Amino acid sequence: MAARPSFALAKPDFSRNQFGGYLGGPAVKDRLFLFGNVEKTKENAAIGLSTPYFPALTSYKAQFDALSTTVRADWRVSQRNDAFFRWSRDHNESLGNFGGNRLPSSANINANNTNQFVGGLDTVLTSKITNSFRAAVTDFKNRVLRPPADAQAVVVPGLEDIRIITDDGALISGPDNITPQSTFELFSQFRDDLTWAAGRHVIRGGVDVVHYRVRVTNFVNGFPQFNVVSPASRNPADILDQPFINTTLGNKNGKRIPGTPDNAHRNTRFSGYAEDTWRMRNNLTFNLGLRYEIDTHPLNNDFDKASLVGPILPHGTDPTPIDKNNLAPHFAVAWDPWKDGKTSIRFGAGIYYSLRISNLVTNERASIAPFNSGNDTITLTAGSPSGGPQDFNRDGRPDFDFSPALTAGTKVRTAVPIILAGQNVYVAAPPSNVPTLDITRTGLVISNDLQTPYSKQLNFGFQRELPLRSVLDVNLVYSRTEHEFMRDLDAANFFPGNGRPIILGDGRPPTNAITNITSDGYSRYKALTARLEKRFSGRYQVTAAYALSKLETSTADGLGLGAGTLVNRNVAANFGTGPLDRRHRFTLSSIAELPKGFRLSLISTIYSAVPASILVGSADLNGDGINGDLLPGTRRGSLGREVKSVDALNAAIRSYNSTLAGTLNARNQRLPFAVEIPDGTRFGDSFISQDFQLSYVLKIKGRAKVEATAQVFNAFNFSNLVGPAGLPSSPYGGTLPTLATLPAGFKVNADGSLLDAGGNRVVAGATRLPSGNLITTTFGSFGAVRPSIPTGTGLPRAAQLGLRVSF
Asked: Mean of the pLDDT values across residues 183-203?
């Protein structure tokens, strides 16, 4: 605990040192030009923490080091040929992935090392035809490691090597579930583009070949993870005596791409395009193009699915096929109606494919490859002792029975030694020829009717030159994305809320949840953008931009993993406002040249708040196995959008309490009572920041000069509060406080409000339980914190000085 001598409140420390240099010039006059630069950054910061479990812990040290280097050569080969070569290297290392509700013990050291080699040749073939060839190799290596020992010590007492997540969203403690890991990626790219100017037509075409190889090791949940019912006391020492919701443990085998000789996944993407830009008239131009792309091995297309999941997939045990229907046309037109060169009316439309190679490949590989040949995890749910016996050796006899830890109400301190003992048996289990899914009966599988995600985009724009060297640009933008990845978290109907259990390939009903990745998701984005720019003249430049937008989606995940499912196999029920939706955005920037050689720059940014989903604690209202369901009557992202006031929120809470609270769900679990939120609670905070830079250039002699800069970020120190996660775009907490049962003397009023023994309305943050403990919450502004990242636009005010010498 070396962040400070104690946990006393203190202003977080921050310092950054940057230095570097560059050298460039002609090596052979008019033929060869060389350039090189190096830059070093060393940053000492403190990331903000805010959790009621450790109220005095407000910050913790976080270091960042970076070194970047570039070398480039440009060669005039001949009058018709120009070549270049560039090598760049970037190395950075940081302590992060904590802050807000995440303790330093859940942090990790993230180290990246990237080398890139690029070469190119531009050739003039004829007076009308040119060719451009590029070749590149990118070698990327990433390692994620546990934090230093002093950070590991900031943890829930007695659970130093156990990851703890409380269901109130207020605390994450212990080892990160993805640490340690490594990702080594190697890209090789060859691209050739041909351009032909033929009268009023400019025809372009090209081909692109990208070969990709990735090796991944990841010891997922090598340290078991427990999702725990939060104690009313918010005392971390009491967590040991709390019941848990579920636990996930791994087999400590780091291979993420088993079934291959070198733990590697390889894919080659071939793509080609052709387009014609036709200047039909001097004031009217059309563009028409077509692109096609295909991958040789984008997913686990070489592996049949495990026989266990054949009955729940559309094509049995067939592997996921390669989607070859990836034709992407686009069309655009630009028109100057008055033929004066001052007005442009534009329209564009197109289809754009995007198959992101993601962790889905490695996650499925661990499930369909032979058991224990790679990393795998098991999730065990409290209250479901039938899932306790685990037959790791597939010999018909359980190797370990977790049932004593899964009895409803089992305390964490009782469950931990049982889980650890079972994990040791899991780790020692030998590799098998049987797919992991067939043995563990839980895991992830990619559907064998998966399609490539694509978006259909439309854009209508108007641009007009105005007096004072100004330009007005207005656009209407619409995008509809189809076949986004989604997760069916219980494809076999292990949980009764999803219907009758499906008999699996071994002739038995499911005993654990099986996740199926589908391409049923979709999203919709609509925006009106306007930009007014006064170009640089008269010693100043000003740009003002505004966007009114709306993002709706069926999945909250921006990484292509399909995460964030709220309701199983019901795409429409998952559709709502996206987590990164900011309805209003305004930016003002300006540069002004002042007397005596000074220059002043500013950028002012205002965004509206992001939304959040309103969840009823960790309750599974419909019994479909997803804990933390939407408050009835709301949808994804309702908080701050459809639900804009505390009155509207509490009305929905009272409706829930009068109809569902206290009843049994399909899993025979009693649903909790939701506690109302007090007046004045805010649902989100806007983002406001003003950044300034003052610079001065002193010319010494010839080309020698010194440039001094002074920068201030968030000059007026707007708080820009965010949710418990502490990141700049983290939504406010949307998890309602709940009571598992009504305490003595408490009751439900006729209108659905909860009343205490004195007949007073029960309100979070004000009402105390019979034990004397306050009903606490991190909902809305109760859990709001300043961003935990130390500096930058909109973050706590910071200043920076710089000096640059060139000659």
From this structure: 97
